[in-house]
């Protein structure tokens, strides 16, 4: 029982929730088939050119995962990354660490001065965003994956909706939706509004990050509990059609990722430490805490995230959010 529960609690951030759930839930392993693999979009040049990149760290594998309201293989027309997460899979295979980087984080972007980190995607697509993240963290990014937020609707509806718990009644004026306190059952459209909200949340985008993580938790729980093969097929098709990866990701890479995530029993959600918020050039920004962020990303680079968590406490809770 505990073993099964630990498997269900393997939570994968952003695009990886789609990739890692290419499994036959409740039955055994669901190998990635040609039909599903053909639906995954791959983009050439997503990874930066080799020069000036950090050397590989002390072990493990790192994915940069983004969520966007626009297709992640079309970084034109000012498209920005709405959710940015660095996911570290430990070399020992004992934990998955999902680290959110606030999209309004005020950081140096190569060739564009200091600006919001999500502007890097608009200026130079995945390659510039990866270079920006690598410069910020000192962590080498091995792979890139992105999930179109519109895919959340189909993925959620394919499973018959998901459940989340909200701690306090709140109104979202942008989407004209009021969330009642308590356990809520979300269909696809409601789920999309849930992960988009930042207005009227006490900590704005930082609370939005926690909502995104809570939704991914709920989506993974529901998918891994599903026994209906038709629902499984619809979910996987919706997921793979919403995913974009770098062109070094093969079907074998995805199978290996799925195997690895299934075996991992410990996961944690973290947010890059922040020093506060401010205004720059008429826009709200998030100031990162350089010292604490350096300690976190040094732990990622050295494959010692467990030691960091022991020293600094647990990360974000996903069972209940604002």
One letter per element, helices H and strands E, the order comes to: HHHEEEEEEHEHEEEEHHHEHEEEHH
How many β-strand stretches? 15
Radius of gyration: 18 Å
Mean pLDDT over all positions: 83
| Total helical segments | 11
User: Beta-strand level of the residues, as a percent range?
Assistant: 15-25%
Uncertain spans: 1-33
Q: Which percent range fits the helix content?
A: 25-40%
Strand neighbour order, sheet with most strands? 1-12-7-2-3-4-13
Largest sheet: 7 strands, mixed
Distance from first to last alpha carbon: 30 Å
Structural class: alpha+beta
Shape: globular
What does this structure look like?
This protein is of the alpha+beta class and 322 residues long. Helices cover 38% and strands 23% of the residues. It has helices spanning 2-8, 15-20, 34-39, 119-137, 150-158, 188-196, 205-225, 229-241, 251-263, 290-301, 305-312; strands at 41-43, 61-68, 83-89, 96-100, 106-108, 114-116, 143-148, 162-166, 170-172, 177-179, 182-186, 243-246, 267-271, 274-280, 283-288. The strands form five sheets. A seven-stranded mixed beta sheet has the order 1-12-7-2-3-4-13. A hairpin with a 2-residue loop joins strand 14 and strand 15. Helix 6 packs antiparallel against helix 7. The longest helix has 21 residues, at 205-225. The two termini are 30 Å apart.
